[in-house]
Amino acid sequence: MSWQAYTDNLIGTGKLDKAALYSRVGDSLWAESNGFNISAQEISNMAGSFDDPSYIQQNGIHLSGKKYMLLRADERSIYGRSDAEGVILVRTKQTILVAHYPAGVIAGDATKIVEQLADYLISVQY
Questions:
Q1: Averaged pLDDT in 10-residue chunks for the chain of 126 residues
Q2: Can you give the pLDDT at residue 34?
Q3: Closest CA to 99 of 120, 68, 125
Q4: If we measure between CA atoms, which residue out of 73, 106, 67, 108 comes closest to residue 89?
Q5: In sequence order, which residues have a C-beta less than 8 Å from that of residue 27 and are 6 or more positions away?
Q6: What is the pLDDT of residue 1?
Q7: Sign of the dihedral defined by the CA atoms of residues 45, 50, 55, 59, in that order
Q8: What is the pLDDT of residue 35?
Q9: Residue 99 to residue 120: CA distance in whole angstroms
Q10: Measured torsion, CA atoms of residues 124, 78, 114, 121, in degrees rounded to the nearest 10
Q11: 3-state per-residue secondary structure call for the chain
């Protein structure tokens, strides 16, 4: 399966409207759907925040020019919210999954989908 198929499958769930897949260090975009348009600086900040969340704790999460309030940050997952929409970032052995859910979607439903894909990628050494 191509990397693009993974982001397309996330969108296909109907719970997410944007998704991207980056290398673990955030220096390479592997797949993107719906013109997510995350800047190189934004993904670099996010990649570093898995190991040291102090930047996003102070400044929030910035993706596609939009700011999200930090809800959770650890070595595996970063969650953010802005009004009724939110973002989910999950780091695997070789990738960072980035997904956005729109207003009207239950955060837990969207999170479960992204975390399950991350579990799968980890199980196949990605």
A1: 90 96 96 90 95 94 96 96 97 97 96 97 95
A2: 78
A3: 68
A4: 73
A5: 44, 47
A6: 61
A7: positive
A8: 79
A9: 16
A10: -10
A11: CCHHHHHHHHHHCCCCCEEEEEECCCCCEEEEECCCCCCHHHHHHHHHHCCCCHHHHHHCEEECCEEEEEEEECCCEEEEEECCEEEEEEECCCEEEEEEECCCCCHHHHHHHHHHHHHHHHHCCC
Domains of the chain (ranges; CATH) run 3-123 (3.30.450.30)
Contact 49, 73 (CB under 8 A): yes
Both tokens of 23, joined, read: 């290398």
Name residue 86's beta-bridge partners: 81, 101
Could you tell me which residues come within 8 angstroms of residue 9 by beta carbon, excluding any fewer than 6 positions away?
117
Q: What's the rounded Cα separation, in Å, for the pair 7 and 29? A: 12
Q: What is the pLDDT of residue 2?
A: 87
Regarding pTM above 0.85, the answer is yes
